[in-house]
Specification:
By secondary structure, the chain is mainly beta. It contains one helix and 16 strands. Helices cover 4% and strands 53% of the residues.
């Protein structure tokens, strides 16, 4: 049973999904995969995991069930194509909002070197990490430069070398541009790219 701001329930919908406990938690036995100090193990059945855990859905689809309140209300979403961290606040004003935060991958691939203008254009559009979301409830996916919040929607959040691209496949998403501090509502078939400021961005890897 999920608990608001404390525990979510994760299950495999298809393919292969692995998960890692938050830093500081006890490590599970039988580790199969390791990335940046995290120990990942296969998710083979529905189980409760603490908020702050990481899921790798690059080769599968996971369902996340989280609490909407302390009275037993729940919501769910299916996520695939990426590595992410599951976060949720206990605050009543958050109304159960569950955040899926993109993690992993190497932004050193954004360096252009001496590729010329054509090569630089290709690098700008290069996708470094992403996650596909199909949700029913209050979920938010957050990349480096924007965060998309929705109800009952299918959308893709992708961190590229030139910014964070949100593409809506069904329903609508409220995208918060974290740099410009503005919110844009996207409907089906629309997309929005939140870019990083700085003329020298493509001359070196982001932080």
């Amino acid at each position: 049973t999920p608990e608001l701001g404390s525990v979510v329930v994760a299950n495999v919908v298809s393919g292969t999904v692995t998960f890692a406990l938050p830093p500081g938690s006890a490590r599970a036995a039988g580790a199969r995969e390791s990335q940046k100090g995290l120990t990942f193990i296969p998710l083979q059945e529905a189980r409760a995991i603490p908020v702050g855990s990481f899921l790798n859905t690059r080769r599968g689809t996971a369902q996340i069930i989280s609490a909407t309140n302390t009275a037993g209300g729940t919501q769910s979403g299916k996520f695939s194509r990426g590595l992410f961290q599951v976060l949720q606040s206990r605050a009543r004003r958050a109304k159960g909002l569950t955040q899926i935060r993109l993690k992993g991958s190497n932004f050193n691939r954004c360096r252009t070197g001496r590729r010329g203008q054509a090569g630089a254009a290709q690098v700008r559009r290069r996708t470094i990490r992403r996650v596909r979301s199909n949700t029913s409830g209050r979920f938010r996916t957050r990349g480096r430069y924007s965060a998309g919040t929705s109800r009952g929607t299918v959308w893709i959040t992708a961190d590229r070398c030139d910014g964070t691209l949100t593409t809506v496949k069904r329903g609508k998403v409220a995208v918060r541009d974290l740099r410009r501090k503005r919110t844009i509502v996207l409907r089906r078939g629309k997309s929005y790219l939140a870019v990083r400021a700085g003329k020298r961005y493509f001359a070196r890897a982001p932080r």
